[in-house]
């Protein structure tokens, strides 16, 4: 009975996730999170979560609790939570060799058509290392609503002959990095990636003010977003906090 229920729930969550990424959400974010959390409770080793280990999602529980437990006395980074399709990029010796979605789908050819996505990185040591370099970001539609951004990005990744028209890629994480967030953002920019608008503060009240501004449409208003992302800046703190099966403990999303 338990295995049957887990299989059915896994299929439902996967179906809803695909619909969401296609710009055709069938349930609210809150309802989806509840279903996903329920699946995690009854079957934490489900293949649905194994597929997502590389491109983790973000927890969206109470900011005050997260700050008190994990970010007190820490500098925090606040960025827009882009609404499109998450992409992971892998570079070998500075050359783009793989691109994948959160579900693990290979979308290398589609990624290569995005005009602002570098297919070759500068020869600055780290970028051209023989060790694979993996970068996380979001494929999105600039100047579009969040729903249209999702639909355009999702449709592009499903096309047999994609053109990349109307889409951009924004990079916001070097996977596995132990450096400070600000340093990673500077490094991404030096590699000619588009980077997100980035605010910095150690004041939790300022974070709450920025969230209120976002809710009022006064922060990141020209971007397709469904919230703001709050991260711990200090690399050593990020390493200490680590990640759980679903999300990094050093970052959260603040939504509606």
Verbal overview:
- The chain is of the alpha+beta class and 256 residues long.
- The protein folds into two domains: 2-51, no CATH class; 63-254, DNA ligase/mRNA capping enzyme (D-amino Acid Aminotransferase, Chain A, domain 1, 2-Layer Sandwich), CATH 3.30.470.30.
- The chain is 37% helix and 20% strand.
- It is built from nine helices and eight strands.
- It has helices at residues 2-21, 29-42, 47-51, 63-71, 108-112, 146-158, 181-190, 204-215, 235-241; strands at residues 76-82, 85-92, 95-101, 133-140, 168-174, 199-201, 225-232, 251-254.
- The N and C termini lie far apart (36 Å).
- The relative contact order is 0.18.
Brief overview, please?
With about 260 residues, the protein is α+β, with helices and mostly antiparallel strands.
List the helices and strands and how they pair.
Elements: H1 2-21, H2 29-42, H3 47-51, H4 63-71, E1 76-82, E2 85-92, E3 95-101, H5 108-112, E4 133-140, H6 146-158, E5 168-174, H7 181-190, E6 199-201, H8 204-215, E7 225-232, H9 235-241, E8 251-254
Antiparallel strand pairs: 1-6, 1-7, 2-3, 2-4, 4-5, 7-8
Percentage beta strand: 15-25%
What's the CATH H-level superfamily name of the largest domain? DNA ligase/mRNA capping enzyme
In N-to-C order, the SSE pattern is: HHHHEEEHEHEHEHEHE
Supply the helix-strand structural class: alpha+beta
Q: Count of helical segments?
A: 9
Average pLDDT number? 88
* Count of extended strands: 8
Number of domains: 2
Task: Please give the radius of gyration in angstroms.
Answer: 18 Å
CATH class of the largest domain: Alpha Beta
Low-confidence stretches: none
